[in-house]
């Protein structure tokens, strides 16, 4: 069977929903139209997607394909022109602390220390509970010793850890990550992927992860949602049926990756 | 020692001191060579100031000027920052108010003197009002800009963590805009110090501005005129130097680097 057939066979048996998991999040016929200079521009067209509880899904596509817009819509920062997003069967009307959006490390507040950032969403806890929670997540992301540091004293990777810890500290069910490792160097990026998977396996949050990096998507996701550009549509949903930790030189990994490359219209070889 | 090494402490002091000494020497000899009867030499200025200190007047004048600046300046902060946050937070409000602000802003506080006297009479309040006006507009405008420049990401992060709009304003927008607001506050402090001298020349009978105009009017004591001018310079420098220390705090220092 050729790569393409494998992908299509898998995709046909796999609709826009997750196998064997309770549906956590559903996008139903989401359309998004922006008005720019008097012209209306369709950014998202008929997006149907289901994400299971505890599932790790990557939205993959070229820049400008609307994947970040889709993520902002699902997170409640933008209202769709038509269609609906629901989480736990409840329509999304705005952002909610149960679902935290992680920006590239640019979302870290520069006026707060590492501690202050991680404790930012914990205003309702008592002082000692908050301190405990902060300590726990500082340890989880490996920032011991930097509690009192300010973001401008940290590297890009450390800032990204702060932002992930700040998100996890409020104990959300869903994490939205918008190209979180895009600004990091390639070595740090590899390390951060490993860390994210370790945290995900420990905490089992539902993760929706936007990236334009095919390898990143295939290394991380349970399913990769491949999007086409302008207007953004879901082109294919590719399940990655490899257990973690993934051997990124195994034939099956390469087969899946090349299948997605084909799907996007990039054959091997540049 | 390489050329890239940090200058040593005594070197950093040496050159400014040398430049000041050269300036004083130039001044001294210029007065001596031109044999002017009106313009004082540095030594005459020094003697005049020492005389004022002995009479206990100088100290009171400085205190009065600083008091007027403090009241006017802090009133401008107390009104300018909340208004600036409000206008910056609600762009429609700003669109309504902005034309008026932009119209009033270029008017020198000196031009307000007659109006200030109508409002407050000749006295302390008129001078304080002028200081307030001079400080108010830079504070308001930088605050509005600062709030407008807060990245959308920070506001989104704030609302994502369940903050209400007033909480976002206090815990996200204000600290994010603070470095820019501080720039406005520093400019405003400089202007306040400029304006108080002018105000004191017209509206009151104490302070360094009054000292200048009074020394000239009663007996043409140009040694005291120039002495007061130098004092104004030194105090202005000290205020600015003091303010710069605030910018070193880590919670705002990020905003004074090239990139946040």
Fill in the CATH topology of the largest domain in chain A: Rossmann fold
The class by helix and strand makeup of chain B works out as mainly alpha
Gap between N and C termini of chain B: 34 Å
Taken from the alpha-carbon principal axes, the silhouette of chain B is: globular
- What count of structural domains of chain B? 1
Straight-line distance between termini of chain A: 24 Å
**Number of helices, counting only DSSP H or I runs of 4 residues or more of chain B:** 11
Mean pLDDT of chain B: 89
Pair with the most extensive interface? A-B, 22 and 22 residues
Q: In sequence order, what are the helices and strands of chain B, one letter per element?
A: HHHHHHHHHHH
The fraction of residues in strands of chain B falls at under 5%
- Compute the number of strand runs of chain A: 10
The low-confidence parts of chain B are none
Strand content of chain A: 25-35%
Class inferred from helices and paired strands of chain A: alpha/beta
Domains of chain A, number = 2
| Strand order of the biggest β-sheet of chain A | 6-7-8-3-9-10
